[in-house]
Structure formats: structure tokens, C-alpha cells
Amino acid sequence: MNKIEIKAPYLIFVGSETDPTEAKTGAGMFKWRPELCTGQLVLKSGGLPIDLPLMTIAQAKEAGAKTLLIGTAAIGGGIPDEWLDTLEEALNAGLDIAAGVHKRLNDIPRLCAAAQKSGARLIDVRIPPKNIPVGTGKKRRGKRILMVGTDCAIGKKYTALAVEKDMKKAGLKADFRASGQTGIMIAGKGIPIDAVVGDFISGAAELLSPDNEDDHWDVIEGQGGILHPGYSGVSMGLLVGSQPDAFIVCHHANRTHISGWDDFPLPSIEDVINLTTTVGAQVNPAIHCVGVSVNTSDLNDNERKGYLDALSARLNLPCVDPLKGGTNKIIERIIAEFPN
Amino acid sequence: MNKIEIKAPYLIFVGSETDPTEAKTGAGMFKWRPELCTGQLVLKSGGLPIDLPLMTIAQAKEAGAKTLLIGTAAIGGGIPDEWLDTLEEALNAGLDIAAGVHKRLNDIPRLCAAAQKSGARLIDVRIPPKNIPVGTGKKRRGKRILMVGTDCAIGKKYTALAVEKDMKKAGLKADFRASGQTGIMIAGKGIPIDAVVGDFISGAAELLSPDNEDDHWDVIEGQGGILHPGYSGVSMGLLVGSQPDAFIVCHHANRTHISGWDDFPLPSIEDVINLTTTVGAQVNPAIHCVGVSVNTSDLNDNERKGYLDALSARLNLPCVDPLKGGTNKIIERIIAEFPN
What we know:
2 copies of one chain form a homodimer. The first copy, chain A, has helices at 24-32, 57-62, 84-92, 109-118, 156-169, 181-187, 201-208, 232-242, 269-280, 301-315, 328-337, and strands at residues 4-5, 10-13, 37-41, 67-70, 96-99, 122-124, 143-149, 173-177, 189-190, 216-220, 246-252, 257-258, 261-265, 288-295, 319-320. By secondary structure, chain A is of the alpha/beta class. Chain A has 2 domains: 4-124, NAD(P)-binding Rossmann-like Domain (Rossmann fold, 3-Layer(aba) Sandwich), CATH 3.40.50.720; 143-337, Rossmann fold (3-Layer(aba) Sandwich). In chain A, the strands form 4 sheets. Chain A has a 6-stranded parallel β-sheet with strand order 8-10-7-11-14-15, sandwiched between helices. In chain A, helix 4 links the parallel strand 5 (96-99) and strand 6 (122-124). The longest helix of chain A has 15 residues, at 301-315. The radius of gyration of chain A is 20 Å and the shape is globular. The mean pLDDT of chain A is 94.
């Protein structure tokens, strides 16, 4: 197996957390894949303010759940001791456990022992699968659209999920392809590209969007930023391995510098378009930008419209905020440019 | 420790191999660092045709050797059983063993046991050190020159070692910085950049060429190729982390396609210069190309001169074959452009 796969349906577990911001994986799971969620389990009364029934492990098992999914913030965080009784109970009941937190499930002896006994799996989505090959660059069938960014943490995953949803609504065949741990939890499969050894990044990206039907779109979650001082290698390898036909630049309206690298001005959208096109053309000469997705959360409705209209005129591209109005303008552009 | 370090002087060990092509790490070691080599140990009569005395382990130890260096071809290859008596004897005598072959020294129980007993180290130069941070992009003091290539296996290591040697002859302060296993064996230290996890490639490159005196040059071995379908992520991360002031493009006069990726035409030298400059400028706006190093082994002397002269006129850059006449034309350009 060279791709992580998580079995649905899921029981969402968020410890004692009831704030969706802190339980963003669990909340995101329900937002994007409600059909895969059976229930939620919270260690205090209440629960997440989402429309999922509170369940015990026995109830979830009875309802068909296959995996307990740890839904607290994927970046940072651990597995507190007070969760262990619950997690062990889940394993004893035959549920797999999947987590994207820093602490590895497979490093906790008590959980390993319980998993071994029941045959349940401990799935650490931050650990890439073994036996990833070097990228071949060979052209694959099907269409691919990659999210790229002027920075990290700028909406690439959200945009990809919104594009997948809006493409399906428009009658296109589309699958979100997850390249990061939160995305993998949501999609139930994928490869954590940033955890792959350098020589195999493009190869991992090739596995992530395999050969497909000619009119099928892989909507690939981006990572890092191609002009980022820390993560450009990952972005570059993902770009080259994805051989995208199209890409969307993700941006934040009010960000001026690379987040956490304050000496670095944010690259312009044009710079990102040009560099992505230059590099991507090596593996797919037809590559081009089909739109820009902007986080405009700091703007009011009037400002947002003005900003997006001006950007659209400047770049001659559809520019949207996926949270405010979806990505349909970009989908229309894609349909116009890729008629089947 | 977040850099591999091998203690000199070395006893070069090449098993039963006496052909310098097959024992290229050993032969290269002596070519570039004769002052670090105490002797050679070969399991049959003869030895490598290099000016190093044949020694037993006892003699090497007596002569001050600190490390037995396995000098057979670094790419591929293993540790044959018939070497184990000799390697165990070296560990018993307190010599470290360093190797860049695929098979890990640390996976051979007999060697692990002997090393533990004597306190000697087993150094697998393909395994990157732990605790590599994410790249910061912070400007470091000192000057850096990076080898980049139109392809893999095109002379980047050789060129870097030749540039280091010629810089020192010209009175400049210079250190070769090894980013691959053979280079690390020769330099005695370095980081195997292509074995580092994606998120930390730039950070590894930053460790490789740390803060230094203002007039000191780090001559950084390149990896992969920025437009390579398999390895561009590694090249990109190394470029961004190296924040080079200058770079040299390495090329092969008669190569038309990417070696082993026959569907891909070789990118032009101009394309590599432009992309390297665009990306590198993000971390060092002064970056520029100072020359081209070409493997012209397929050309005769007349053809070589014609080729290099025409290339030099086309690019307005010094173009050399480091094997045929050294890199002095490039060193002169560097001295002119970076007066101290």
C-alpha cells in the first residue's frame, strides 16, 4: 500500500473540545463529508455545535462506524492521557483510530497492544506510506487542477474542497486529492507530501493523482508556496509530479509578508503564476492559471466586491472568495476552456 | 549533531576492487583530499593505481588513521559478507567506518555489536542527521556559490571541487560543501540533501553553509536539476536554503535529453539560468550566473574550443570544461564581480 486509506464511516472524537476552531479537523470533516460521519464523541457534556448525534463507542459501532477519527487541531497537539481509556475502548471494539496530531498513535504502547489484540489499525496520517518511487514525469490520462499559493495557510485546502464540490454540482467528474494531514482525514486517503523524503516528492505526487478517465478532474490540494523560503521544495515537487492542466492561485487580501517569515514580502500573484507556468510546462505544456481564490475575511461586502473586480480586471482571470459566493466563476472558466 | 562528520585521516577500503571507475569514491577521495588519506586496504594483491601505500588495519592504526572509508561506487552496491572480517577487525581496533552504499552499516548486527564494544562509530552517509529545522531564509554572512545543472549526473560535484581548489590557488577562502553521499565522503562532512524530508530541505541547506567571514566562499555541491521531472523539489529547496550570491550551470555538450527520462528534452542553459535567478532572488536579490561548466568528453580538442567559445559568446559568460583546463576563467569572473 503506498497511499494512506481510512475506512468510513467515522466517529468524530474531539476530547473535551467543543469549540469548532480548536476542533477544526472534526468540524471540517463534517462540513465537507457529512455523509461519512456517523456521530461525535466528546468527553464532556455538549459536543461540537454540528448536526451529528452524540454517541458512545458501543453506539457508534452499532451504527456501523469503522474508524474513530481524532478531530482536534491537526497542527501541533498531542494525545492526552485522559483520552487513553476511550481510545483503548474503541480499539477493543474493533474501530481503527486515525489521527494527524504530532504525537504518533504508534508510539503509545498501550494503544499498540490493544490494536494488535483486536486487529484494529492505528493510522498516523502524518507518516507517508513506504515504497514511494521517484517521479517518472510520464503523462497520465485525466485532467488535473492544482492549488498553489502566495503563502502557506492561505486557503489551498479549503479552495480545493470548494472546487471539488462546485465541479460536482456542475456535473463534472471530480475528486479532491489530499496532500496534507487534515485533507487526508477529510478525504479518507492521500499522501502527506511534506513528510516525504526529497527524492520522492514528485513520485508521491504522481501516485496521488493516478491515471483516470479523460473527462475526470483531480482537484489537488497544494502545499507550501513555490516562492516560500522554507517550503518551496515541497511545492515544486508537488507541481512537477501533479503535471496539472490548470491551477488556481490562493491568496489573502490583506497579507503583505510571508506568515512567520516577516523579512519576506509576499510574492505577487503574477510572480506565482509566471513561475508555476514556467516550471509546470516542463511536464505539461498546456498548463495555465484558471483563477484566483482570495481570503477576503478582513474586508466588508463592498470592499470585497471592489477588490475582486479590480483583481479580475488586472489579471484577466475569475477571482473569487470561496467562503463568500463559492467558486462557480472559476468552474465556468474551466468548462469553457476544457470542453469535453 | 545535525551534520555528518567523518574523522580524518582515512584508510581507503575497496574490497577486491582495483579499477578506479568501480572504486570511484576511494579514487575521488585521493584525487581531491590526498592529505587526508593514510593508506589503502585491498583484499587482493595490487590495489588501486594511486600513490597510497597498501596497509593492514594494524599498520593504518599505527599511522594514525581514524576512519576506514568504504570507497566503492557510492550509487548501488552493498557490503559483501567477505568484507565483514576486515570491517570487524577495523572496529575492534577503534577505527570508525564510513560508507555511502545502499546497504546500511547500522543494519548489520555483527558490525553493530563490534562498534558498541569498542566505541567506534558506524557512519552511513546516506542517512541525514536528525533535528533539521525548517528553513528561515535569514541572511547569513559570507559568500556562497551553488552548482546547478541542466540534468543530474552532469558534473556538479566535480565542478564544485575544482572551483574550491582553483579558488584556494587564487588566494580566496573557500570550502566545498557536500550535499550528496560521495561528496560527504570526500569532504568528511555534509548533509545528504536528497534524503531529507521535504519540509526540511531548505533548512538542511541553511545548515550546510552557515554564517562565515565576509570574504569566505562556500562552494556548494548541487543536486538534481531545477527542471528535472523527478528531482526538482530537492534542487529547489537546496537553491532557496543556499541563498547563493553566484551560481554555475553544469552541462554536458552532447546530452539532448534528461538521462533516464528520455521523453524529456534537456532544458536549455538559458532556461536554467532564468529560473535559478528568479527563484534565488527571493532569498538573495544579488544572485546571478558567473559561468558554465561543461563536460566535453565527447569532443576533440578543436571541437571543444569551438564549442566553449561559441557558448561563451552566446551567453556572455566564461565557459569551461573543468577536466580540461580547470575553472580559472570562472574564478577570474568571480574575483572581478566580488572584489573584497
